Hints:
Chain A has twelve helices and 14 strands. Chain A has 367 residues and is an alpha+beta fold. Chain A has a seven-stranded mixed sheet, sandwiched between helices.
Amino acid sequence: MNSDNDTLVAADDLTAYCVAMLVKLGVPSDEALLITDQLVEADLSGVHSHGVVRFPIYIRRLEVGIFNARPHITIVRQTRTTAVMDGDNGMGQLVCRRAMELAIAKGAEGDPAWVAVRNSNHNGAEGYFAQMALAHDMIGFCFTVGGINHVAPWGGAEAMLGNNPFAVAFPAGEELPVILDMACSPAARGKVNVAAARGEPIPEGWCTDSEGRPTTDPYEALKGFVLPIAGAKGYALTTTIGMLSTMLSGGAFGRDVTHLYDDFKRPQNIGHLVGVLPIAPFVEVDEFKRRMDKGIRDIKGVRRRPDVAEIFLPGEREQRLLIERRKSGIPLAGGTIDELQAVGAGYGVSLRLAADARQGACSDCGE
Amino acid sequence: MNSDNDTLVAADDLTAYCVAMLVKLGVPSDEALLITDQLVEADLSGVHSHGVVRFPIYIRRLEVGIFNARPHITIVRQTRTTAVMDGDNGMGQLVCRRAMELAIAKGAEGDPAWVAVRNSNHNGAEGYFAQMALAHDMIGFCFTVGGINHVAPWGGAEAMLGNNPFAVAFPAGEELPVILDMACSPAARGKVNVAAARGEPIPEGWCTDSEGRPTTDPYEALKGFVLPIAGAKGYALTTTIGMLSTMLSGGAFGRDVTHLYDDFKRPQNIGHLVGVLPIAPFVEVDEFKRRMDKGIRDIKGVRRRPDVAEIFLPGEREQRLLIERRKSGIPLAGGTIDELQAVGAGYGVSLRLAADARQGACSDCGE
């Protein structure tokens, strides 16, 4: 993930930059901090595809007013255990967080609770929201409709579905929580861009051309579609995640989903569904955590392939990296840094880089 | 799916055979009918891997007493919106149905409800249980831990996870309901057996050898492991489904899962998690169904690949086939018929075949 072109940035400096920028664009400072926390956590965790690499498009959408910097988020309808939330076209990081806070509050009395959200926006990595449930001894869920239609229905030759992401988080005891956070394609489209830039073929199973035929040519792939994982199964899965995320709330689904990067006229009306499953009604929380710890340890202790040093649980590497990078800093790609600085320049905001930060230089001097 | 060796059997005749057999093995007749309904529905839907092909192992387990023919299913613990159910080692079809009935009853007042199950058994196709919610205008969920550990944790060289299945069912209006029902591998292990029998290689991505190395050799694959879909993602998904199915209830997970076909000493303690999400608290049911219908029609109307005649939603083909086969009969493989007749012979129960049933003969005479 890191390369010689990466530059180290301290998490606090990245946070300061993002908050300053969001405030310049009219976001209240407390909310700017909440939004930034999720973005920086993605980069801390190594999930760079959902970290500050998205910041320039967010700023662009704030600039043209197609994100609402000061949303009035409302609960449209609610019961003791459910709610429909309208995000008022606010940033997805803020809206989805509010939704999860509401689900947790509703679940606090021991009921499963779900909040369906509409009029939200791209919300970055889903795991962040699912894991909010952990401190409350609940299993957390987050489903979201993707902000770009990359995927053709199975047999189709037209991108009409997102690569819809979802997350499930389980608390554990002495072990790290288990956090699934995935979308429905084998590889993010960004990797196709990288292959095209290098003139390298892409693996089979990643993409089709514009007629829906399998291709390993990255240029044809960029005119075509992202393939879902395992073909028809991944199509069924992304359809399901998309329907969960939108049908209860009235978020945009399928043909009605606009393009995060190409359409600056229509708000996206992104939908989420977040939920909690409190543990205590089912089993004493300590016993649940003992069960989790045993399952985790059994998996980690499994006989390994000769070339494999350690088995990881879902989300384990990300959580470990997060702890490590809080100390060591976040390696960001040179291109990302340049873009952030360019975006910041117009507002007099610059991103402070770590002293002696070139990793390439550090490796050269043997550190 | 059909071949010249298939024999047509009427659904009613298949039902009569299964009920008679279960009753001979001590299952009460009303419960035998419920169990059979789910198995026959799988064959009607073309999901033969989870239909009566499993009947011989079920009978064998009833014979040796490792299935409880007359379980006393109990609710161990419950609240208004949750329950833990103990299946008393009854057949999974019965226990999981009772759990879903309970979830639906709890959801009837408009709350999301979940029932976690332990001491159950192999329950066939999950979609059957999820779709029970549809008539009640609820979204239905069913998660189950698989009854055989075929899958190695990612990087592992030891099968310690099931190919865990799950289902989500959405009601629609004029269109057919959308029913996702999938497990976490690209291909069922049964397909590897078929390839081995034919001496044909298997596709890349299906299996590893016993050291966890990818292989296309079906013989090596049978000594090895089933690969999850999309590698680490499928591993994360099957781990998640397994944890959902067992951690709340105390069902067996990972290393504690015994083998459906090889272990006749220890009850399997299979876990399920079933749940409902009632629609009315979120949105008028008619409006929800209009949203679903629009989404479904948009997908079905998408531009198609030149070689594709129709786009199907998840579960659509299965539901159509079910209607068709109720009239035309169920084509069962010759080997399956032979096995059912052999199992039945010892009990004086025979499966009536449809008159003039050999499909091969019919094709020969031009019908």
